[in-house]
Structures are given as C-alpha cells and as structure tokens.
C-alpha cells in the first residue's frame, strides 16, 4: 500500500496536503507543579534575596508583600511583578497558564518594578480660562518641575504663564510665522520654539527674553520636532536636536548657537526626533523608516547610522519612549514637605545628574537595555521596538481604523496610550505590546493624549472640543470617568503637569483652560 493510501489521501484528487503533526512535546504540555522555585530581580538584573519556593496560587498582592520583605522595606511600597514581560495581574498560576515557554524545572525569574508611591487626583473641573492668544493654540507644555507653563500658536507669539495665579508672565515676540514646535530643556532653564520658516528661537523663561541675539537658522523648511539631550548624559543641558521637512536633523548648542552636526539620510520629511538615554538619536520619517544614529565622536560631530527600523507601510507620524517622563523631568522629584526651621542641604553640582540617572535606570535598567520605542503611522498600526538591540520589531500593534495621531507612554512605562483619527484611544501593555482596552466616547478625531504622573489616569483631547478623563485603575476603564466640556472649538494641545497638580488644554478657540480636581 502506498504512503498516500496510508494517510488516506487520493493523490489525484487535488486535496490539501496533510497538516503537520504535532510533536509529543507540543501535544503533552507539562503539568504545572504545586510550587515553583522563584527568584526576584529588578530592571537592572540585581537579585533581591535568595530564591524562594512559592505556591503557584500566590496572588499579585502576596508577591508584592514578598518583594517588600526581601528588600527589607520599613514601609511597604507598590510593585508590579512580571514573568517574561507578562505582568502578574491576578495570580501566578493564571499568568503561567497563558504562557508556553516556561520550563517548570528551572528557577522562575520574576522581575519587579517599583510603582508610584503618590496618588494624583483626577481633574474634574475648569478653574481658569486664560485668553491672550489671537489665533489657534498649537502647543502647550509644562516645565520639568511643573512651576511654569508655556504656549505657542498661530499668532506667532510664545507666552509664559504663572501656574499659581494663572496670569501671563511674559509674551515673547520675534517669530514671523506660526509657532509649530516647542520644547523645554530638562533643567527647566531654557525654552525653544520654532516657526514655519524654520527659525529656532531660544528663550529665558524667567525674563521672557531671547538668550541669543539672533535665531538659529539652518533648516530650509519648517521644523517638525525638537528635543534636548537628557540631563544625565549632559548636565549642562545645552544640546538640542531639531528635525525638519527638509529631510535633515540638526544638533545645536543652545549656548553658542552653533550647529554641531547635520544628520542626513532620510529620503523624505523627518516627522519626529527622540534623544535616547544612552546617547542614541531616533528619527522617524515620511519615508516609512526609523533611523538610529550615534553622533558623539571625539569632536562631538560624528554621525553614524547604527541601524534602520523598517516595517511600516506608510509615513510615520510620531514616536514615544518608555523613559519619556524620566527624561522630561530630569532631576526633579515631587516636593517633600520640610519642617519649619529645618535647613535643606545644598546640592552638589553632580547631584542633579545622579538623580536623573537614577530615575532613568529605574525605568529601563542599567545600560538602558530596557529602553523601548513605539512608532505610530498612517498605516493604522504601531510597532514596538528595542532600538538598541535589534532592527526587528518586538510587536505589531493593530486595531485602529484610521491614522495614528499621537502616542504616549505612562510615566512608569507599563502602559501605552494611542490616539487616532478613528475617534478612539487604545491602551496597550508597554512591555509586551499586548492590547488591553479601547476607550470609546469621543465623537471626533483624537488629537492628543497625556498621562497623570502616577500613571493612573489618561486625558484625551479631541476635535469634538472636549477632553475625557479615563481611570486605568477603575472597574470600568473603558468608560470615561469625566467629560470636560468648555472649549468652543477643537482642542489641539494638551499637557498634564509633571507634579500632578493640574492639566492644561489649548484650543482653536484661542484660549487655554486649566483643569483641577
């Protein structure tokens, strides 16, 4: 009898070939034991205590208590526990049941990540409406310490606001075209803005005056994105990267006004630039690629292409890193109350840099090996990358039905929010890229999303003139906790203060609104 007959297949019948038979290892999945030898380690790979024999039914709260005991914490702190980049949300056994690559005969490695020890109250009401701009407000951002607010828009001016009194501090005049892009230095001492002509102006937030006698000129088309070098890499905070529609990225010294290097290599407009925590620069372009650059040579002017990240089928609009919040706030921490009469120790010059480095390592680990990058595109998809390690994406995030407009990691890097023209906000796992929630409620395109400092709340701004607040720790995270109405037109700009005290929104109706609990 032929082999075809044995398999029950007629070779003349055009039938599909037989399915590949599963191996014994695939068919017989090893039974889960009642207990496992587990070892706890942090993001840097440092072990906490000795390995422990744990029942598989241990829940996430008990794991958190165990980590506190192993670390010897006097006061219990909140932690997230991961198994192979999968967070333990209920119990250890339920998490392991969803995984196929676990060897029960080996020590199970559990990674713990510290969470926010403070709680931010959700914004619920408008406390101030601040007029002043005479055209649409396109950008609004808080300083790294949350004590100042800056805005820019179509009226060619940059304005600084006092967040305590909600009154204007300075009105900066000098731009001749729409202010399209702004950025704060990580030490809060410098603010930069660029307009449609490609000019970049550097402002002193304390005086509202330009720090240089003239604007930085070099781009032949308008600037699409700007970012400063992280504070832990450069304590002077004097280097700025700017991306432009002229296909180039330039690195400037904001003290001397000199262009240190010009990065060329993209075939179309560079839409976004990010400066990573280990010195690499990431650029995303309309040519559908993301390029990773190393620029620091002996003369600090080298440009070397490390790798090209490809995969998107359409232009890339935005980038986000899991360490964005840590890089943005630099050395600033939430204020700690000091008793009257007590003197604060004066900081050593190197202390802010050390604090910024510690904050960065708490998110990505030693050496930045856990630095993650997410890209959003007009092809309706997002890609999760490990840009320092590989040019292949870790995950492809699908589900949106229109182009991705804005993406933002939560401050602790655990979650990712994406806003799209399909009127939806989607929440993803910031570690694995797994889909978590779809937030429905807006009746217009979602332009911006922002997180609270404790990673508990998301606020989204929309074309429908409203903001919506979503509670990620609530029982129903997919339903809006609050709808903030008040703007008379589309809401283009949005930012939640790094100190968690308030949220600001800027609209096409030419007003800024401050929202508090």
Main sheet: strand order? 2-1-5-3-4
Query: What's the alpha carbon Rg, rounded to whole Å?
Result: 25 Å
CATH superfamily of the largest domain: YVTN repeat-like/Quinoprotein amine dehydrogenase
> Could you say how many structural domains there are in total?
2
Helix tally equals 6
Measured by DSSP, the beta-strand proportion falls in 35-45%
Uncertain spans: 1-11, 336-349
Looking at the overall shape, the CATH architecture of the largest domain is 7 Propeller
> What's the rounded overall pLDDT mean?
86
Do you know the CATH topology of the largest domain?
Methylamine Dehydrogenase, Chain H
Largest sheet: 5 strands, mixed
Q: How helix-rich are the residues, as a percent range?
A: under 10%
Q: What is the CATH domain class of the largest domain?
A: Mainly Beta
Q: How would the global form be characterised?
A: globular
Oligomer: single chain
Instruction: Tell me the span between the first and last alpha carbons.
Output: 80 Å
From the helix content, strand content and strand pairing, which structural class follows?
mainly beta
Number of strands: 37
Protein model, in words:
Helix content is 9%, strand content 38%. The longest helix has 14 residues, at 351-364. It is globular, with a radius of gyration of 25 Å. A hairpin with a 4-residue loop joins strand 9 and strand 10. The chain is mainly beta and 517 residues long. It has two domains: 23-114, Ubiquitin-like (UB roll) (Roll), CATH 3.10.20; 125-331 and 358-516, 7 Propeller (Methylamine Dehydrogenase, Chain H). The chain has a five-stranded mixed beta sheet with strand order 2-1-5-3-4, with helices on one face.
